[in-house]
Give the backbone structure.
Amino acid sequence: MNGSEVNVPRAVRLRFGHAAIQLVADSIGVDLLHIKGAAVDPSLRPGGYAGNDVDVLVRPAHVRALDVAMRRHGWRLYSTFEWGSPFGHAQTYMHDAWGFIDIHRFFPGIRLSPDRAFERLWGDSYSIRIAGFGCRVPSVPAQAVLLVLNAARSRTRAMSDVQVAWEEATPERRLEMRALVADLDAPVAFAAANGELERYRGERDFDLWRIASRGGSRSAEWWARVRAAPNLVAAARIVLRAPMVNVDHLSHRLGRPPTWGDILVEFFRRPAHALSEAWRSVRHSGAVR
């Protein structure tokens, strides 16, 4: 019937989304790992939670080719690597049929270089069927580690992942996970999720993961990102970006592409908001004393 619509359950649509991105990747020879959501082993998600979008970790050298192919197949860019998150790790696309998909070029909390980290996860990966397509996923211990690292950036539902993936894990599984955390050089973020963060107070990214896991002001987060930078060049880039307007976020907030006037207003609004945050923090500290 012309003009008819069918409401597809979200869990079904997401599984088709995994299959759709896999089809595109296979057509151009791109390596990717399906992570989170429908790709998670049932033993780690007994409730079968499928998530709100599709997440894939892409071999870094293949990201550009996948971006071009996705746009050609109807995906539209929703937020960029630079402004999608404080870590700059993922780019979000939207498709009329498949919904949202996050393309990860690295995973937050892993300090090993993105190329080497992907190769480490790829080496133990295996294939599962999602909506009839073969999709590669990390090993089950690696999935557990990624769920815990993801929980370090969330104080809501993701903490149940810590309970299942870590707190209820067997001693053998915990040993496997700790070994992988060491291989990936991800101890601070992992500790932020499992309650051991104070052990890493001297690490350069301690403040970043303290704020990511427990909360903090936007200005404090920016300074933590500067301190967490692996070198002076990376730190300088963060400092230079700090005063810039997040056009992606502004356009979503306005519900339309921002004008130059909108961007100018936001440019001056942000420092005023940062000063207000700092003043509230000082007042709170004085009240606590």
In short: The beta strands are 32-35, 54-58, 76-79, 90-95, 99-104, 126-130, 133-137. The chain has a mean pLDDT of 83. The chain is about 55% helix and 10% strand.
